[in-house]
Amino acid sequence: MAAMNAFSELRPPLDTDAALVEADRCLFCAGPYAPPPCAAACPVGVDVPRFVREIAEGRPLAAARTIFEDNLLGATCARVCPVEVLCEGACVLLHEGRRPIEIAQLQRYAADAALEARMPLRSRAPGNGSTVSVVGAGPAGLACAGELAAHGFDVVVYDAHDEVGGTVRTAIAPYRQVVDPLPAEREALAALGVEFRFGVRIDASEDLAALVDDSDAVFLGVGLGADRTLDCPGTELSGYWPSLEFVEELKHGDAPVVGDRVVVLGGGNTAIDVARESVRLGATRVTLAYRRTRELMPAYHFEVEEAQEEGVAFEWLAAPVELLGKERVEAVLFDRLRLGEQDARGRHALAPTGERFLLLADTVIGAIGQSAQPELLTWGLTHQDGGLDIDEAGRTRLPHVYAGGDAVNGGASVVQAVADGRRAAQAIEEDLCRV
Ligand code: SF4
To answer: Of 4-13, 396-405, 422-431, which has the strongest mean pLDDT?
Structure first.
């Protein structure tokens, strides 16, 4: 395995020669393979064979235009999409026993070339006089804002932070994207007509009411809130990190000193990310402990396999009881669990077996998910799981208020958030044009 460090990228970019060779392997599926399975597997339906052919013909900017037609955040998605279970997982070459086309790498090659050349993302339709406020500059909000701006709407995006990105900026580990395309994507969206107002927190129902009054429509792409708190004693010890703080530290270029033994608590993609980053930080014994079984882990299974190949060990059916240590964490005490009966929603009950065990640890990282943004509860827009309640087009219960992304689904892929933003933009356009 190539030497890794916390800041070395999982998949470095292709140069032009490598991109041409890779694009040339594509079958440009049509005929019996229509619609192309790669495009059908993409949540935003990027026309993969077309942009790959454009790369093969030596026209990366034309390829980028094709990508941006369906995905204005094509550069970010190329780095963080779980392509193994989307386009590349559907590639016919894979199903013929061959290596799938490296679609994400080709998309990155084309999209980065376009951003570097400051090529417009789209042409902008003449202004239609309608105004839309977008709350949250994460992928759902940016996609919605960009689509509407391209269709002639006046769009203002509000975000409490001082940069775009939302969860991509705060929760995606740096080994997935060393060169962050978000600032260039923000500039390209601004050139398309999107106005950004940073440092503005929309968290009171009066704030929302004011936006509804001032705009023809409001899109909520507010994402998720803070890390859920680990419910066991010892989290005050030094050496314990909530996962978002850990990733933030890494993104600031400050590699946390993790020591030899790291225990990660959680079973989602962020847990996998911080475990793999811990390996890159030099930990020699990284163990990920999850309450349920491997099959029930929310993380992508291919990523579990990749983490195992990198040396991450797993403890299934393990619940932390206490973090032990004097000032710094030294070990985690676990209950061994067993799966019980399934409830009506198919979730297994968990019960302790009576067995307890210890894992020694220099660092413990809690990655048990993020809670919903607390203000949503006061806006009366949530369903019983805390996500925003919407119809199939992204409309909430409030007139002229739409939503999408992690605040609705509790945390799915970045490309799904882009798809949500696009879908809501279409609904907004339909609804306002009907008026
Ligand atoms: Fe090319 Fe694979 Fe898509 Fe076919 S399925 S068009 S080979 S990327």
So the answer is: 422-431
State the number of CA atoms in the 13 A half-sphere of 167 facing the CB. 31
Could you please report the per-residue DSSP string of 330-393? EEEEEEEEEEEEE-TTSPEEEEEEEEEEEEE-SEEEE---EEEPHHHHHHT-B-TTSSBP--TT
Our measurement of the distance from residue 250's CA atom to the centroid of its chain's CA atoms, rounded to an integer in Å, reads 17
Q: Which helix (H) or strand (E) holds 141?
A: helix 139-150
- The rounded distance, in Å, linking the Cα atoms of 414 and 416 is 5
Eight-class DSSP state of 254: -
Helix (H) or strand (E) holding 335: strand 329-342
Q: Which class for 341: exposed (0-12), middle (13-18), buried (19 or more C-beta within 10 A)?
A: exposed
Residue 69 CA, ligand 1 centroid: distance in Å: 19
Residue nearest to atom 5 of ligand 1 (CA): 91
Ligand 1 pocket residues where CB is under 6 Å? 26-29, 36-38, 48-49, 52, 91-93, 101, 103
Q: Shortest CA distance to 106 belongs to which of 11, 181, 2, 7?
A: 11
3-state secondary structure of 275: helix
Residue of minimum CA distance from atom 3 in ligand 1: 38
> In testing the pocket of ligand 1, which one of 51, 92, 96, 106 has its CB within 8 Å of the most ligand atoms?
92
- Tens digit of each residue's pLDDT (9 = 90 or more) over 37-93: 999 999 999 999 999 999 999 999 999 999 999 999 999 999 989 999 999 999 999
Pull the structure tokens for residue 387: 């996500």
